[in-house]
Fold this sequence. Notes:
The protein is α/β, with parallel strands linked by helices. It has a domain at 5-161. It contains 9 helices and 8 strands. It has helices at 5-17, 23-29, 36-44, 47-50, 66-83, 87-99, 108-130, 136-149, 188-191, and strands at 57-59, 101-105, 150-154, 159-160, 169-176, 180-187, 217-218, 222-223. The strands form 2 sheets. It has a 4-stranded mixed β-sheet.
Amino acid sequence: MAKSLLEQKPEIMAQGRRQIVSKKRVADHGEVYTNPREVNAMLDLVKQETDRIESRFLEPACGTGNFLVEILNRKLAVVEQRYSKSQIEYERYAVLAISSIYGVDILADNVFACQARLFEVFDQQYLALFKKQATDKCRQAVKFILSRNILHGDALTLKTVGEYPIPIVFSEWSAVNGSLLKRRDFVYGDLLDKAGHREMPLFSDLDEEAYIPEPIKDYPLIHFLEVANV
């Protein structure tokens, strides 16, 4: 019988701390995890962005999420500092922070571990701040967003992994009028349509000269706590 998320949690956290899971995975996939000291040193180079709640990050070979976990830690530290006195404000900005983090990995267990670790980072702080007032509705919103943002795929082919690969599709989440969230789905390959634009931010539409991809699906505005119910 498959283990539940809670039963697997110690194994997931331990895996995230190791640099090598197995020699075979290193040989087959070049899988070596970055240790925390190196992660923090690299993220300190872009500290201004890691401290912006809405600044988007994409890790195309995310592994179990060593970089993404630390990015979320930094973002949630800002959310706590600014909004911990109001539960609804904290929830709104925590969800926005989580929605700004994206990852792809070719190994399914890494994807699951990354999603679980990111959720754990959020849930620990959420419970510490609001205890019995913490809601399952907010947790479900976070889990749903992570399921859309951390994907099982090959960042080289830009397709999912499996018997019938299809193009990777990411969801863009944008806060509108306070508690409302706008979701638009984009094909990952379209976001990288031209080699000259590969250094531009994910979903960039700020520069009038930028290539602006078209979403393949545009969703109605929805309360951020209801995103899992679309």
